[in-house]
Design goal:
The protein is mostly helical. The chain has four helices and no strands. The two termini are 30 Å apart.
């Protein structure tokens, strides 16, 4: 599993804008390179975050497949931890660093604003589901058995299915748009 720490200190941020003001500039379509190093760095961090989210989905799928009798307590604890602050940090990073680049690259169009609004709403839904799932996984880890295996399996599959779709959309729509051709 890949863990990504997003720190508030500007010096620790791999996406920190180097030598630029606090405003974000979009990718310049007339060039074959990046106009803004901050956008490139942010996309690289987002790719690592997507890898971490998909690894978590794989772990959650393993737990779902092990129900009702083969529950691995350690797996449940590790998944519950990852569902905590990590997911919220990834979402805040996307909202603060990626989405402004995306909107600027589309000239702050209505389409860009609607896409960003949709993704922010999905972030809220995912975080709410993650909190419920985290509690259920902690219970299962503590007791060695799920309170209701059918319900837990349904929650797990619903969550990792939604996250995989969300990541695929961000890759296809956001990252693909921000990555320069070639």
């Amino acid at each position: 599993m890949i863990w990504i720490k997003v720190k508030q200190a500007a010096a620790d941020q791999p996406w920190r804008q180097r030598g630029t003001s606090n405003s974000m500039t979009a990718f310049n379509d007339t060039q074959t390179g990046w106009h803004d190093d901050a956008a490139r760095d942010a996309v690289e961090v987002m790719r690592r975050a997507h890898a971490a989210e998909l690894a978590l989905c794989d772990r959650l799928e393993e737990i779902a497949d092990s129900l009702p009798n083969g529950l691995d307590r350690r797996n449940c604890i590790l998944a519950a931890r990852a569902l905590g602050q990590t997911m919220a940090k990834i979402h805040r990073f996307e909202e603060q660093r990626i989405f402004p680049h995306f909107c600027a690259s589309l000239g702050h169009s209505v389409e860009a604003a609607e896409t960003v609004e949709r993704l922010k709403n999905e972030h809220l839904e995912d975080e709410g589901s993650a909190a419920e799932l985290r509690d259920a996984l902690r219970f299962a880890a503590r007791h060695g058995v799920a309170d209701n295996p059918e319900t837990l399996g349904f929650m797990l599959r619903g969550y990792f299915g939604a996250v995989r779709r969300h990541v695929a959309f961000e890759r296809d729509r956001i990252v693909a748009h921000l990555v320069p051709p070639g």
